[in-house]
């Protein structure tokens, strides 16, 4: 048994060293967008995931929030619910892809729109 082990070690020492050749990179592969609720979902302009129709209501940023505007945003985006989040408002951090969050500043101006 010892002779076999010694022969195996001797044979490994005689083997030619092998070099690693990295694979050649091809063209980038485009992944099709995921579809949720009949809409393609992917990164938005600020790296957000658009599962609630943000692209259809981006024009609301910078405008004063009203109940009519929030209702219009819900209809245009196709979401089930909307919540307006004012500074200091305590909100649950549960993510609901069918909810639109409208962030406003202390003057009621829309500063951000996000899903969740």
Describe what this molecule looks like in 3D:
The chain is built from two helices and five strands, in the order H-E-E-H-E-E-E. The chain is 21% helix and 20% strand. By secondary structure, it is an alpha+beta fold. The N and C termini lie far apart (67 Å). It is elongated, with a radius of gyration of 28 Å. The protein has a three-stranded mixed β-sheet, with helices on one face. Strands 1-2 form a two-stranded antiparallel sheet. It has helices spanning 2-14, 67-77; strands at 34-36, 39-41, 81-85, 99-104, 110-115.
Task: Give the arrangement of secondary structure elements.
Elements: H1 2-14, E1 34-36, E2 39-41, H2 67-77, E3 81-85, E4 99-104, E5 110-115
Parallel strand pairs: 3-4
Antiparallel strand pairs: 1-2, 4-5
Write the H/E string, N to C: HEEHEEE
Distance between the termini: 67 Å
Mean pLDDT: 74
Helix content: 10-25%
Give the uncertain stretches in residue-range form. 29-37, 39-47
Largest sheet: 3 strands, mixed
State the secondary-structure class: alpha+beta
Fraction of residues in β-strands:
15-25%
The total count of strands amounts to 5
Gross morphology: elongated
Q: How many H/I helices?
A: 2
Strand order of the largest sheet: 3-4-5
What's the Cα radius of gyration? 28 Å
